[in-house]
Amino acid sequence: MRRLLAVGAAVVVALAASATPVQAHGRDSYRKVGYFTQWGIYGRNFPLARVQTSGAAARLTHLNYAFSDVTADGVCASADPWADWQTPFPAADSVDGVADQAGQPLAGNLNQLAELKKKNPRLRVLISLGGWTLSAHFSDAAATPAARRKLVSSCVDLWLRGDLPGLAPGVAAGIFDGIDLDWEWPGSDGNAGNAIRPEDKQNFTALAAEFRRQLDGLGRHYDLTAFLPAAPAKIEAGFQADKIFKYLDFGTVQGYDFHGSWEPRTNQQSALRVPAGAPDDPDFSITTTIDAWLSRGAPRRQLVLGIPYYGQGWTGVSGGLFGTATGPAPGTFAAGTEDWKVLKHLSAQGYALHRDWRSGFAYLYDGTTFWTYDDPVQILQKTAYIRTKGLGGAMMWSLDGDDSSATLTKTVSAGLWTPW
């Protein structure tokens, strides 16, 4: 059976690589949401042009641009104006193949997003607010009706009406098709120093309602989505799962970082089910996370499963899976994490590839260093899970972890393809 699954997966991966954009989209009955990181244009050298030329853009239904700041004054603001609308791109890094010129009305990533939408008119682009490092003031900005109105109005003006500071009014209008709330996390710990209130749970619902009210007053439909946690304790502390989807088009559920190099022993970071012999009880998995949301009243078709394009790694490992480690494995940009486009080459460098088909995860181990990650085979297992559970689609963090052929994104698209 495992051999048949592996052979079948290889066939679908091959089809994913050769599928045309029209084939990959099908009827778009599933959402395929890719995050593009604002800072990826720097050390990673990943401009939006790569999303176009790799074929990824043609396979996505939504692209989330991460992140906008929510400031101490309770308003939306750019976290990096140079990246967002100032930096000029040469022809080789421009979506339309034309170099930016001095004095043009808009440059930076926002102009590239506009070019990407021209080439992919079905693609919906959302601005993501917050994230791990920019959620410090979300609780304050959601604490009262007046604060919520102020925050939402500022986000609408800046990102949807396109009134960027220092530029002509409306210069960036029409680029974003909605807003993604990445408050990490209402009612429970996130990054150190975040404001937290017991009433964050109710205030998140009220904030979503205020966003929906103001968005609906703009004369067209704007999407409203949210990034949602995996841990049942965080769900319980911060989200009224039976109420928020009245206002959200869908929510993307964290399907990764269940374990990582901050822990002293190796483990899975994104398994479908808790592996046999796992040392933690209770433990995290995709199934426990999705079931936690469903049991609290979340609609299946509005849950979009998050898939990582990176792995978690340990070194100084004794014992392989669940073995003790001396610390995080070296990574290109941060210790303990590495992009799939790098990890995919490790099997040819002395690492043994292991798969747990029942639990739905893979890992690489060379006797010293251990990486747990998702590859095309595991992604196909997850797209089958999405179909079986009746979920709304897949979300990918983040597009810069894929290879130059967008192999992972094409695999997601093929796995969720719906025939005409």
UniProtKB/TrEMBL annotation:
**What enzyme category does the UniProt record give?**
hydrolase
Q: Which GO terms label this protein's molecular function in UniProt?
A: chitin binding; endochitinase activity
Against CDD domains, the record matches this protein to:
GH18_chitinase
Record-level GO BP terms: carbohydrate metabolic process; chitin catabolic process
Alphabetically sorted, this entry's keywords are: Carbohydrate metabolism, Chitin degradation, Glycosidase, Hydrolase, Polysaccharide degradation, Signal
Q: Which Pfam families match?
A: Glyco_hydro_18 (PF00704)
What is this enzyme's EC?
Answer: 3.2.1.14
Task: Cite the GH18 domain residue spans from the record.
Answer: 30-419
Spell out the InterPro entries in the cross-references. Answer: Chitinase_II/V-like_cat, Chitinase_insertion_sf, GH, Glyco_hydro18_cat, Glyco_hydro_18_chit_AS, Glycosyl_Hydrlase_18
Catalysed conversion reaction: Random endo-hydrolysis of N-acetyl-beta-D-glucosaminide (1->4)-beta-linkages in chitin and chitodextrins
Annotated signal sequence is 1-24
Superkingdom, taxonomy of origin: Bacteria
Stored SMART domains: Glyco_18 (SM00636)
Q: Which family does it belong to?
A: Belongs to the glycosyl hydrolase 18 family.
Name-wise, this protein is chitinase
Species, as recorded: Mangrovihabitans endophyticus
Q: What is the lineage of its organism?
A: Bacteria, Bacillati, Actinomycetota, Actinomycetes, Micromonosporales
